[in-house]
Amino acid sequence: MVELFGRSFSRRELAEHSGMLSQFAGVRLTTLGDGVERGIRMLEFRTGTGLRFTVLVDRAMDIADLDYQGTSIGWHSPAGFKNAFLHEYEGEGGLAWLRSFSGLLVTCGLDHVLFMHEAAADSYVYGPRGTVKHSLHGRVGTIPARLTGYGETWDGDECTLWAEGIVQQSAVFGEDLHLIRRIEAKVGSNEIKLIDRVVNHGFYKTPHMYCYHINPAAPLLEEGARYVAPIEEVVWAAHAGADYRKQGVGYRTMPAPQRNFHEQVWQHQMKADAKGLVPVALVNDRLGLAFEVETRQDQFPCQFEWQNLQAGQYAIGLEPSTNHVLGHKYAEEHNELIWLEHGDERRYDTTFRIHAGKDATAALEKRIAGLAAQPTEEYPTPTGNHRPITGR
Predict the structure, then answer these.
(1) Cys-Cys link to 306, which of 52, 301, 311, 317 (CB 3.0-4.6 A)?
(2) Separation of alpha carbons 14 and 22, rounded Å
(3) DSSP 84-96
(4) Which of 328, 38, 348 lies closest to 179 in space, CA to CA?
């Protein structure tokens, strides 16, 4: 049954109440038409509960907007949702990625994440290419997808909204990696499911790194909003040491927008539940609203927290990653880099959830605290204990 408007509907009953499901919920394809966004194909999902989100087909099928009953959750940076054809991957010493950085979900990869790195290209067996120069967070997030389908599917009296596409990151004498992405949301639910498969379509042995930059923002993010997670230990902080408290912002409780704020990044070691799932959330007590990201620890063993609390750019990042925050070189040196042969693939299953109302947010916090009691202090001392990642 579909739960909408305080009652249950069968498929037949919904049909009796409207000429089309799109009166209540649905997914539709549109094209943006102005400014740097001009020409981007966009899918708009509505589940009927007040949950609405948009998917940018021409930017790796990433999620741009997310709002719930009129409350915005997804981040809009001043860079806007720039058309991929305007992006300069090699620009500004590898930092031009920041000129296309916006949205709730920005996918990073497929063969590199984190800061710039120059890697040996021996596996591509091409003399003129001795190295591969990687810019910040890799190439995939600004590659248009081939949209293979979208729509609604009924299974008895349950209806699933969905979209699928393939993002190809490929080069002659280089990588040929395909991101096969499926996004689902059930009518009557407050959940979004993201199912990704990264496949080596080529015949060169190819490295693979992957990360989601998930960016909730105002009004969910505001003074007093809290980062809630089953933290066993705080592993690393970019600003640890003499400047750890310099900006007066700890890891747990968010301030109002700041002036001249330098980004802060942590890596946390999380405790998974019995099914191997890791829930991380941003909770706003004043609004009685929370946004949760649930990932699998065997797929994303590392979790980062990113704070960009600068006025005019105000956001926080919940970032599951295949690798430690120390980057590509560290992964190579510690044999933690994933290598894919032809036909090899990695799968990533992620759920985004909205929790509305004080009872729902309290239940979420209780569930998370039952896994691990996160540090109550705002500035816990980082342990430096980057646990080895095995099974690669």
Answers:
(1) 317
(2) 11
(3) GGG--TTGGGGTG
(4) 348
